[in-house]
Amino acid sequence: MASPQRLPLASQLGLVALLGSGVMIGGALFFQYAMGFPPCEMCHWQRWPHIVAMVAGLAAFASSGRPHLATGFMVIAIAAIAVSSAIGIFHAGVEYRWWQGPQSCTGTVPTGLSPEELKKYLFGAKMVRCDAIVWSLFGISMAGWNAILSAILATGLASSLSRMAKSR
Fold first, then answer.
1. Exposed, middle or buried: residue 164 (CB in 10 Å: 0-12, 13-18, 19+)?
2. 91-115 as b/e, with b when 16 or more CB fall inside 10 Å?
3. What is the pLDDT of residues 57-77, one digit of tens each?
4. Phi/psi of residue 156, nearest 5 degrees
5. Are 141 and 88 in contact (CB under 8 A)?
6. Does residue 107 contact residue 131 with C-beta atoms inside 8 Å?
7. pTM, whole model, 2 decimals?
8. Which of 49, 63, 148, 164 could disulfide-link 9, Cβ–Cβ 3.0 to 4.6 Å?
9. 136-137 and 140-141: which strand pairing?
């Protein structure tokens, strides 16, 4: 196998996407299992695009003999990371009460329910709320950090891929 420096740039970027999204997922799992912060529904939404980016990044890395295929996988990885950032922005907005989140995880109770429907709704409600900040650093929640770091990763990868395309 060739050293990473000898791989086409798109394959090298695939490795960066794989590792970058892997670090993001690893951080989320650390907070979940080591720190004891169970994820809410929107936290899970932010993880899925990173998993897609990891698979696409691995595919780009493995496609070193086919630069066009590696580039295609990189476009998928970049788009997935950008989607995670967008979900992180939405989630952070819910946490900071800039807008309302989905009823399924913000704890708002629908109006007009009968007593029996209300009882059923309350007993089936999830315990992890999406609008509660359980950890923050410099006033930025985990969702906010995902939004920022994912945007930086997606922008860096897209910029590198764009420069590669222009140099062809």
1. middle
2. bbbbbeeeeebeeebbeeeeeeeee
3. 999 999 877 888 888 999 999
4. -65, -45
5. no
6. yes
7. 0.80
8. 164
9. antiparallel
The C-alpha atoms of residue 71 and residue 82 are separated, in whole angstroms, by 16
Q: Terminus-to-terminus CA distance in the chain, angstroms? A: 24
Give the three-state DSSP class for 140: strand
Helix (H/G/I), strand (E/B), else coil: 12 = helix
Query: In angstroms, rounded to a whole number, what is the distance separating the alpha carbons of residues 77 and 111?
Result: 41
Helix (H), strand (E) at residue 10: helix 9-29
Question: Burial level of 41, CB count in 10 A (0-12/13-18/19+)?
Answer: middle
Question: Which residue type sits at 125?
Answer: A
The answer to whether 37 touches 134, Cβ cutoff 8 Å, is yes
- Per-residue pLDDT band for 3 (boundaries 50, 70, 90) equals low
Residue type, 40: C
Tell me phi and psi for residue 112, to 5 degrees: 80, 15
What is the token pair recorded at 100? 């309302």
Tens of pLDDT, residues 9-35: 778 899 999 999 999 999 999 999 999
